[in-house]
Specification:
By secondary structure, this protein is α/β, with parallel strands linked by helices. It has 13 helices and 7 strands. Strands 2-1-4-5-6-3-7 form a 7-stranded mixed beta sheet, sandwiched between helices. Strand 5, helix 6 and strand 6 form a beta-alpha-beta unit. Helix 3 packs across helix 4, helix 8 packs across helix 11 and helix 10 packs across helix 11.
Amino acid sequence: MIVPSLGATLGQIVLSRMNASKEKTHENQLVALVQAAQEVGHFLERASRVLAQIEPMLPKPVAPDWQASVAFRWRRRATAFGVQGVLQPVRTVSAIRLSDLKTIDMQKEEIERNTRQFVSGLPANNVLLTGSRGTGKSSLIKACLNEYAGKGLRLIEVDKEDLVDLPDIVELVADRPERFIVFSDDLSFEQGEAGYKALKTALDGSIAAQSDNVLIYATSNRRHLMPEQMSENLQYKHQEDGEIHPGETTEEKISLSERFGLWVNFYPFHQDDYLAVCGHWLAQLGASARQIESARGDALRFALERGSRSGRVAWQFAKDWAGQHGLSGPSAAAARKKAAPPARKAAVRKPAARKPAATRARQPSAARGKDQ
């Protein structure tokens, strides 16, 4: 309510001065306006001092129910005291596991190793995952959360626009015993965005030491998180209106990505990799080996229509194909096994008992002795 009352008070001051000067000369009106402006300036100065005294008493970000989930989202909400950030528990967390991620074994090993070190209290790096779309960058981070949530790992998802609140987030979780990954998906910046500087400072640049229980994992399709244009090469020609040190512009652009201690690159899928991932997800949705083999042609056509072979496209195809064939998930495979008649055991004929060789050898001699 401070802002509306402030506006009303300013309006009253100006109107009172204008009304008082209606019957005066033009010069007197100008003098009255100047006096009104001075009064407004004094009022704003006093209001600023009052707000500075009130600010420490404003409510700080409230800690969430840490037992409600293993994943949280940072959300900004407008209140009577301005915009405030809150940590919102994620009620339904993605159930993807490390074993579900195929054909990215090298990347999976690096991320899993770094996360394991972090959870164990050992030194670990902030991570930047870059490369082709739909190749498992975000899924790998979610799978690591599911793998190590039981050992105290937690995840906080932050949108690019809210990265300016990183210091508040770190302060909120600094005294917690859990280990937190601040996750920002599909990260990229344009020149001059506020979140760019905030992330640089949070990674490495603030006078305050980075919290031991917080790491930043970010994914992007851009290697250096900033657009790189061919026209920038022209800056290396020393022109009249060009920069004296054009290389510094490039240094500024790559300075953010360089602050991530671990870079992990992802590459487009080959056809065999794509088909292997399709087969995995079809099996998870209840398809038999024969059905998976027969679906290969459909999987290739599905990828061709989208102009991409990736893990995301493979998952989309598997859902589409399974839905068309009435498969509803792992329960379908279990139901199929249950409905199948039990296999009959083949009758085993027992061989006739044979007498010991020594007995068979003595019988003829005894018979001959009896005849004699």
